[in-house]
């Protein structure tokens, strides 16, 4: 992906450009522990339509945050994993998880998902 010199007015804007999107942070979060098949991601993010999930995965692949590997089986399987660049976002995702946990604790809500920390 090519970026223009004056495309971003601040670092937060650049970060949101890369990981902003309805499901991009969730996709990255689920890929922290291990590579996942497309259908595993679909099950982990049930609110994402197949079209939206595919688009978000394409965007993350295009900017170099995830790697897509097609396994030539019948039917073919697609596996997604974090690249080194994608792994560099883990501290940000951990901070988001910590902040969200504190927020939900204040509302006395226990999230159904488990923290990876």
UniProtKB/TrEMBL annotation:
SUPFAM superfamilies: Winged helix' DNA-binding domain (SSF46785). It comes from the Bacteria. Pfam families: HxlR. The keyword DNA-binding applies. CDD domains: HTH_ARSR (cd00090). Gene3D superfamilies: Winged helix-like DNA-binding domain superfamily/Winged helix DNA-binding domain. Residues 10-108 form the HTH hxlR-type domain. This is Helix-turn-helix domain-containing protein. Keywords: DNA-binding, Transcription, Transcription regulation.
